[in-house]
Amino acid sequence: MSANKNDANFEPNDADGPGKAGRQEVRLCREQRGYRARSPLSRLTAGPRWWLALRMSLLRWALFRRVVLAFSNDSEPARVQTPIPGGLGRRFRQWRDDAMFFCAAVEETGGWEPFRREFAQRIPALCYHHVGASVKGSWRLLTISPQVLQKQMRWLAERGYTGISASQWLAWLEAGAPLPEKPVLLTFDDAYSELLKTAMPVLRRHGFHASLFVVSQHLGGVSTWDAALGYPSLPLMSAAQVLQAQSFGIEVGSHTRSHPDLRKLSTASLRQELELSRDELSRLAGRPVRTVAYPFGCESASVRACAAEFYDLAFSCKAGLNGWGSDRHQLRRMFVHPSRFNFALQVKYGVDLHALWRFIPERAHRLWRQLALRFGFRRGHAAASGARRATKVWIMTRPSRRKAAGALTSSGAAEGDFVRASLLPGSDEIQPRG
Ligand SMILES: [Zn+2]
Prior knowledge:
Layout (H helix, E strand, L loop, with lengths): L17 H14 L8 H5 L4 H12 L1 H7 L7 H5 L5 H24 L2 H8 L5 E4 L1 E2 L11 E2 L1 H13 L2 E4 L1 H10 L6 E8 L5 H4 L1 H7 L3 E5 L9 H5 L10 H9 L2 E5 L12 H19 L5 E3 L7 H10 L2 E3 L18 E2 L4 H10 L3 H23 L2 H19 L5 H10 L5 H7 L11
Helix pairs in contact: 1-6, 6-7, 14-15, 17-18, 18-19, 18-20
């Protein structure tokens, strides 16, 4: 900020006020490991990226800042007494103090860009599964072709993005460890053995890191959870292959022991899945495993609470970007589609049009259900439930399979991740497969 003539700092008018606190806060975050998570800077840097950028732009504008900070030129008692009465006055004073605190913190880091890199980084997390030739009869989003992966990694590299692993993100969260200029968190679920040939060399070529989420009791086996859903099983990495992937700079994370829907387990089984997989994989990797990806992306408040006992980070499958203020046990992660346009939206803005397409009918149903409960028209509610299910089946299945999907729905199995996830008992959220 100091390079900009509009970026005059707040001294000496704010020698003891929020400005000083802002500068001290930055120093405290740098000095004390673990303090960053509790710092008010996390609150001030939370929210959508556009809101942060707008707020910063306004504060950079000298006239706007003079108006906002008009009351800060006085002594402390006078500054507290703004002429705006009542609750509005209190809100204004709070907002003004936040603005002074925020701007001083930016000055302390040396400007907006260094501040963004140190405190306001927003990062997309991408979720891949199998990379290889398409598998007949398989879930349609399970496989990405090697050519698509190569194009996507080249697209990232050409635009200055760098693939990172979950532990690099964790180091930034905890201690402000520097991240590359434009980080993207790359993850591969299930540890399919073919990844060693089709994905790892591509990542290595670009110098990208990634996280590999391994099902600890299925090393060297096959993906039985795919078979349970009526899809072909695919071979998984052995212990030696996981170590080989690790030598490529790929970090090992947990995907539980047996890939269950964690919401359906008893407390004892849930703890076992999370704790034992962490211990088994830590022994295999020779380093602590601190991250987990929920199987099928399915989680609940109790699952998150249990995951928090054993892991520092946990990934769901919801669209969006992750920041300092994100729930560390409900991190957002997006399925990768071959569409280059969708991929660009995911990486730049955390927007997943495919997820949005799933989201709209679900939200419409929820609104309808709330109205039904509010006004007591249960018959309408029941009709809405049927309409909701029918809409899901219609939208998420290809025309040639709509008929079959409808039949499968009634028998408890289904075609397509969306339909399948919506049929999992207790599923109130639309959860894609993970
Ligand atoms: Zn999985």
